[in-house]
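FORM 7B: Structural annotation worksheet

SECTION A. Query
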Amino acid sequence: MDIFRLIQDIKKHLKLSFDEVDRWFEKDEKILNNLPVNGGWTIQQILEHIYLTNFYLLILIEKASKKAMRNTLELDLNSEIKNYSFDHDKFEEVGKYGAFDWIRPKHMEPKGSLDLSEIRNLLIQQYHQCSGYLDLMKNGEGLLYKTTMTVNELGKINVYEYIYFLSLHAQRHLTQMKNNELEMIKNKKNDFQKI
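SECTION B. Predicted structure
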């Protein structure tokens, strides 16, 4: 396994995900606050949810990063790199909106206590935090510690995979936000045609 390639691929995915999420902050307020017909979250609520989920995932990623770096003193990094293979397929459903049921904890649900500029700034900080962990573990150290991920029965995943999961979670909600926007545009068009 080319661990350096994996790290670069995760960095690219992370940048793409966060850049796409950031573009939503430029949308019109009506689009951001439109309540979907199915009673789901508004785009602003989804953006807050992405931030909240990242917040809690990053607590685990920070702890795992520290443990992984400590494990370089005891474990054979070269052996771990040699024996590692990334199961890309195992993760792909995480990034697909509606691919499986996902029961999120209450503390990851949006409360409306943050304004858009705060959410945007916090997401930018979270992106830099993730990038910093990838830079810190640039030689494969992220393989040296695993944490259990119960979502979609992923099981024990290493620090790189956890960061990739975080990025995929944002991708999942990008689809949801696009769906919300399209629904609003379609409804406006139908209302206009009725006139």
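SECTION C. Observations
The beta strands are 146-149, 155-158. The two ends are 61 Å apart (CA to CA).

SECTION D. Sign-off
Analyst initials: ____
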